[in-house]
Amino acid sequence: MQGKTDLAQGIPEDAIAPGGMLAGMYEGEHVVLARLEDGRLRAVSGSCTHLGAPLETGKVSDGQLRCPWHHARFSLEDGEAVGGPALENLGCYRVEQSDGLIRVTGRRHTPAPRRELAIDTPIVIIGSGAGGYAMADMLSRLGHGEDTLVLSAESDPPYERTFVSKQYLAGRQSRDEALLPAPGQGLGEPAPIRLGTPVVSLDPVTRSLTLESGETVTYGTLVLATGARAAMPDFPGAQDARVHTLRTLADADAILAQVQEGKRAVVLGASFIGLEVAASLTQQGLDVDVVAQDAAPLASILGEETGQYVRRLHEEHGVTFHMGRTVTAFEHDAVWLDDTTRLPADLVIAGIGVLPRLDLALTGDLALCEASGGVRVDGNLRTSDPHVYAIGDIASYPDPRTGKPLRVEHWVHAQRMGQYLARAFTGAAQTPFAQTPFFWTGYFGTQMRYVGHAKPEASRLEGDPGADDFAVFFREKGEDRAVLTVGRDMLALQMEERWDAQDM
């Protein structure tokens, strides 16, 4: 941060327009000075608490600062991390304006007022993934960790699942670096998390849960955040210990244990997870083949041109594609394809989709949504049982832009559902959940952002894929419903802001 403006010395008061920002330093720390749309000035820490993005390249919107990389949101009033993937708050600074100058004069602390819960307690959250953990974290920050219990079937404590197929599998970060801190960020009593505790049934009449151990747990309000499981491949040899799926940290452990001795890997499926695995294993030094039935990677979601762009990225780093093909068997040290091609393979990883975990919802006779395959919830994420809510991969909620049932399998979207529900339980959020879906993926240093949700009927390309600078807009019923960007982070933020503001 050498050469940054010293904000303690001051800057001209006309240096920042409404909605604008300026990066500087205060006592050796990176700080962003922002002017809200109504003219008020605020100063906060300058790096996103998720992965360190420079926040001055983000966007001020409705009293919040949006991160340019992964669209985390922070309140400019008190620095609170109000939207995933960031969980830790920003530091805040005092700002004074006098003698034609704006100066940062010191740190300030604005504790969030405690709000009473408007629902029955205890709150029991089933699942410690994106949505369940984010909700427990927010409730803990709001002072209600002691009213909350998380039951997790996993033996590992909560972790950043997006790291599993990227940083951890590629060997760029350690296992411990994927783990998340205790709920509450030290700002409130952390909600307890019981690991290795599968729940097998729920009784809505007695408001009780039966655990796999036979123990019974009662709830006042129940939140289902059970997530999804990886779809399993079905071919001779699929049960071999060298055939894997990747959904959990334990799955990544099993893959990495074999990576140390393997030289060749076959990835089944040119999905987002399959392609991330292919990129990560290539960076681990393995030769990687990708086998998929589609004509081009991701073409059914992102279109033919984007699919070919993604394919080129991988091929430039040595990945070999076998498109329009299926695996017929895995035996000894090779995968066989339906055209009799033999691919040497020390391990196989299937990335062929996920299935929502609905078993528990079925035991409670909760209404499902046939159209989207999830648990039907209303705009406040409440199921057909008034004491039970659902978030994340299993929740099918009314799309505020189309009115149709929408089920989204994105890490950030699940986090935001959990954070929204925690705030709704305390009255801090009083309108239906309406945040625009967002996810990111990346291969070999190239980052892709996807904002919105669409089953595209048409698309248009702006920019030049050859220069890693383009956007693809996806249209549904004559309107832009989603956009994919590469090298155009501000456009992605602008479109998210626009769609967030749209009414039905």
UniProtKB/TrEMBL annotation:
Q: Where are the transmembrane segments?
A: none
Q: Which cofactor does it need?
A: FAD
> Which InterPro entries does the protein's record reference?
FAD-oxidoreductase/Apoptosis, FAD/NAD-bd_sf, FAD/NAD-binding_dom, FAD/NAD-linked_Rdtase_dimer_sf, Rieske_2Fe-2S, Rieske_2Fe-2S_sf
Q: What region holds the Rieske domain?
A: 8-104
Key word Flavoprotein present: yes
- Output the superkingdom of the source species: Bacteria
Q: Which UniProt keywords apply?
A: 2Fe-2S, FAD, Flavoprotein, Iron, Iron-sulfur, Metal-binding, Oxidoreductase
Q: What is the name attached to this protein's record?
A: FAD-dependent oxidoreductase
Taxonomically, what lineage is the organism? Bacteria, Pseudomonadati, Pseudomonadota, Alphaproteobacteria, Sphingomonadales
